[in-house]
Amino acid sequence: MAKKSISKIILGFLITLLLFSCSTEENITESSTNQDVEKVKKWFESDLNTTKLKIIEYTKDIQWDKAIITNGEKGQIIEVPITLLDFVTTTNTSAKKLTDHHRLLFIKGENKTYKYYDLQIFTSDSNFDNLDKNFNYYSIKDDFNGFVTIFDPVKQIVGSQKFKNGKIPKPNITAKEDAMAEENCTYLVWIYEDGSIDIITRLYCEAGGLTGGGPVRGAGGYGGGGTSGTGTNPPIIDYSVKNPCDKIKTLKEDPNYKNAVAALKENFKLQYETGYYISESNGYEAGTPVGNLQLSGKIHADTYGIIHVHEDEFTHQVNNGILRDEEVKPIHMFSPADVNKFSSLLINANKHQTPLDKVFIEMVSSSGRYQLRFEGNVNNVKNFDYESLKETYKEKMNLYSNDLETGLLMFIKDYIGIDGITLFKMNDDGSTDRKTLSSPNVLATNPC
Fold first, then answer.
1. How far apart are CA 294 and CA 7, in angstroms?
2. Which among 141, 162, 260, 257 is positioned nearest to 213, based on CA atoms?
3. Tens of pLDDT along 372-387?
4. Which in 133, 184, 307, 332 has the greatest CB count within 10 A?
5. CA 211/CA 439 separation, integer angstroms
6. How many other CB atoms are there within 10 angstroms of residue 364's CB atom?
7. Model pTM?
8. pLDDT tier at 237, thresholds 50, 70, 90
9. What are residue 353's phi and psi, to 5 degrees?
10. Distance between CA 196 and CA 88 in Å, rounded?
11. Mean pLDDT in the chain?
């Protein structure tokens, strides 16, 4: 079949490459021996314990004997088809009705090493042959419909391009900007006999959909190449630079958020917690006090935040057979119940494909405002028995009564054990500070 040119899917870290002219014979050059494949296999297997490719954990077979070797502008490219475990597949919003196919992609680096990538091919063609050597980094058939994604696990960069009849569709200039900005995540999932699925893990995300961009071009593959020297490349999406500080800055500019904070600041003298559960579909919903020191609320599929008050010290009457006064001293820092609720938000967001960097819980008190954000591996997030930690928490916070920030971070590290939870302080002057433990007992403060 004739081969059609397409724009280069850049692997994030690659600078824009000059398009070049060359024939099909120059683009596709088979290696005369298996030595190159044996070298990359030996390197990959020796380095397997350090690989950051999640998909390898769910791979049944790496078909080294079916490796596809091509040569072109980027040098020699080796693509090795892989087969996932039975009842395991990948999917995302754009690929629900498409079949998925997988390859490992290797580019020779320096000092006898290789750069490696997770290559995924999603297509509407039920007869697509993942072993077809004519479908490769430098060449693509003119009857291919679907999209190709190349993920760099080291730099956490993903590039993706959609194709229709082997060509890049022209941009939809009438598309709404907010739709283009939506995040599209690829998940590894279990498929059950009844057709239902469970998410195993999120592999990666990209923004702006998979529409690509630029004019239709002449001969080449999903790696690039061809005769045309004009047009634009697909967008580079680098999710390794997600910055919670930017998310907090955007949130603080939201009028609804400002109004919620202002309202909660009026509640410090109450004798029960107040606050809001925040979702895309229902906005800011008032929570329901549970006793004096907890707040409950409904977590919807698209709930991404909770903001609540830790009230000031107060005295109330209790009746344990004898009516007496009881002094209540709320701690102006996140409690074990708060951290557990934050874990629930993260688990829920991961299940319903809400970007994890959007999720937060905030505590508002007369001593200050704080947020928890997450920057770790969501697969390590779990709910825990926070009730059993109450007394330990009180002891730790009493010990650090003059440094609650350090006390909380040490408590999370020593007793909860979820890596990746970061503490942020929202200062009265509008600035935000990031709080981390730079060593086991030393608090580091870095301004956003």
1. 55
2. 162
3. 999 888 888 888 888 8
4. 307
5. 45
6. 24
7. 0.48
8. very low
9. 65, 35
10. 12
11. 75
